[in-house]
Write a structure and sequence with these properties.
CATH class: Mainly Alpha
Largest sheet: 2 strands, antiparallel
Helix content: over 70%
Number of strands: 2
Number of domains: 1
Order of helices and strands: HHHHHHEE
CATH topology: Methane Monooxygenase Hydroxylase, Chain G, domain 1
Strand order of the largest sheet: 1-2
């Protein structure tokens, strides 16, 4: 690739990374605000989050379109190609996380008409852990930091444990008082969405590991080469 073309290519890669970073900030805010809406039973805030979800969707598709255009025009190989493909996959994961946050905003509206069953402790903890995971995962993507990505994957277990605890607490409440079944069910869905958010962030980390190494790292610890996609050595 001629020097001038390389300069242009690097600039376009940076723009792509900047858009992924911006998308992650929007999604992080959606997670935070949906949790606040739930705790405060704030219907107006919940509706705002749902409306903002379209901007998340639009940016995801812009990233995807820009990435495909970059591949077609520059025909990158190896490390460069993996970085572009990673941007596409990460954007898709971020958009889905935004959907879960918007889903929790919808559930916050459903729960706003009656008092909460109990003070919310574990679900906000799940949100905090997930947001920390998200910021670390995106930082790992920006800096090609495989160690941070691997460490972040381990944090998913903390969210799973909290989700399990919420499940059993709410199940007990439903068994004790049938009038609480609807509200408890909505909270179960909120907790499940938070658990899925952490799973999606784990997917982002696995994509970062692939981007850096050219190998797929599953949550079971198995590392395998990707035949047909490792086009050349770095």
């Amino acid at each position: 690739m001629p020097p001038s073309s390389r300069v242009t290519f690097e600039r376009e890669l940076k723009n792509l990374r900047d858009d992924v970073l911006m998308l992650s900030i929007m999604v992080d805010n959606a997670i935070q605000q949906s949790t606040i809406a739930l705790k405060q039973q704030n219907v107006d805030l919940a509706r705002q989050i749902m409306a903002e979800d379209k901007k998340i969707n639009d940016l995801r598709y812009k990233i995807e379109d820009d990435a495909y255009t970059l591949i077609a025009r520059q025909q990158p190989i190896a490390r460069d190609l993996r970085g572009i493909i990673a941007a596409i996959h990460i954007a898709i994961e971020l958009e889905r996380i935004g959907d879960y946050a918007a889903g929790n905003a919808t559930l916050a509206i459903e729960l706003a008409n009656e008092p909460l069953l109990k003070p919310l402790i574990d679900i906000p903890k799940m949100a905090d852990i997930s947001r920390d995971m998200l910021r670390t995962a995106i930082n790992a993507y920006i800096h090609w930091d495989i160690e941070s990505a691997q460490q972040t994957i381990q944090c998913d277990t903390q969210v799973d444990v909290l989700d399990e605890r919420v499940y059993h607490e709410l199940l007990d409440l439903m068994l004790q008082d049938r009038s609480k079944v609807a509200r408890a069910t909505f909270l179960l869905w909120v907790s499940h969405n938070m658990e899925r958010i952490a799973d999606r962030i784990t997917n982002i980390c696995e994509r970062v590991i692939y981007m850096v190494t050219g190998q797929v790292h599953g949550t079971d610890g198995i590392v395998q080469g990707v035949d047909g996609f490792r086009l050349a050595d770095d």
